[in-house]
Design a protein that fits this description.
There is one protein chain. With about 300 residues, the chain is α/β, with parallel strands linked by helices. It has 2 domains: about 90 residues, Alpha-Beta Plaits (2-Layer Sandwich), CATH 3.30.70.120; about 150 residues, Vaccinia Virus protein VP39 (Rossmann fold). The protein is built from 8 helices and 14 strands. The strands form 3 sheets. Strands 10-9-8-11-12-14-13 form a 7-stranded mixed beta sheet, with helices on both faces. Helix 4 packs parallel to helix 5.
Length: about 300
């Protein structure tokens, strides 16, 4: 690709609003995001080729970010900044910011263009195209979910992935030995991107994808349910999961900012769940829970 101008867009916001703001950027044409987690603020960076009329999208994006406060999300400054650049090619911009990430003992996320040699025989490599969907493993909520899956899966499980995004959690579960996985997202574009990543990792025989709102209309019973979504959506999801888990099944939740942790634990308790593991990274929590056994 020849040298070309490109525009950097930065949103200054809070940890709590990272995923919601990132989704807004995707809906307006962003093909990936980079997250800079600072002490006071979080910067979400994305890039547009100069021939994309990003300036025309800014007022709508700004309004949608402001509207997040109606859902109880603190957006902080919620400020959008634009900067024109010429130094690198469009492809180089993305390749500069996405490098292999060793998530845990067994899991490593690698950009699709990288040639990567596993450091040990039991390392599971997840290839993702980060230009296609949010969910590259950079954000702490994704990393907490991956750690929880690694702790929970033993092989042969059935699983539901609610709000799959890029498909990263389903792909990880498949490589950790889950037998059958149904992954859903309310966004059809996310499902299309997830399908590409599933094929890239050659796990399409284990994973089926579909557009769906939470677990509405889903009647399957499985061994594991995982959801890395905003607390506002976890609250209505939790009651739906109680009839969709096999005995001894596990519920894995992430996307829980510190201020919402007690609320989510309370909703779990109200629905007869027992918290088995509470994972923390920065201001974020992940939870592994199991339905309490009846006497």
């Amino acid at each position: 690709m020849n040298e070309m101008e490109w525009t950097e867009l930065v949103v200054v916001t809070t940890n709590e609003a990272v995923e919601a703001v990132s989704n807004i950027l995707m809906e307006h044409g962003a093909q990936g995001v980079q997250i800079k987690d600072e002490t006071a603020d979080v910067e979400i960076l994305t890039y547009f080729p100069a021939d994309f009329a990003v300036q025309a999208e800014v007022p709508a994006m700004q309004q949608e970010i402001q509207n997040l406060t109606q859902f109880g999300l603190a957006i902080g400054k919620g400020q959008i900044l634009l900067k024109e650049n010429q130094a690198d090619t469009w492809t180089d911009v993305w390749e500069k910011y996405y490098q292999p990430i060793r998530i845990s003992r067994y899991l490593t996320i690698v950009p699709s263009w990288e040639e990567y040699q596993p450091a040990q025989p039991d390392e599971k490599v997840l290839y993702l195209n980060p230009q296609r969907s949010f969910g590259t493993g950079q954000h702490l909520t994704t990393q907490l979910s991956l750690h929880a899956l690694e702790m929970t899966l033993r092989g042969g499980e059935s699983m539901l992935d609610v709000g799959t995004g890029s498909g990263v959690l389903s792909i990880a579960a498949a490589k950790l030995g889950a037998k059958t996985i149904a992954a859903y997202d309310i966004d059809a574009k996310a499902i299309q991107a997830a399908q590409e990543n599933v094929v890239l990792n050659q796990v399409q025989d284990q994973i089926t994808l579909g557009v769906n709102d939470l677990l509405n209309g889903i009647t399957a019973q499985v061994d594991v349910i995982v959801a890395n979504i905003l607390p506002e959506f976890l609250v209505p999801l939790i009651p739906q999961t109680t009839t969709r888990l096999n005995q001894g099944g596990k519920l894995i939740l992430s996307g829980i900012i510190n201020e919402k942790k007690d609320q989510i634990v309370s909703v779990l308790n109200e629905n007869n769940y027992q918290v088995l593991e509470l994972l923390r990274a920065g201001d974020w929590y992940g939870i592994v829970a199991e339905l309490a056994q009846e006497d």
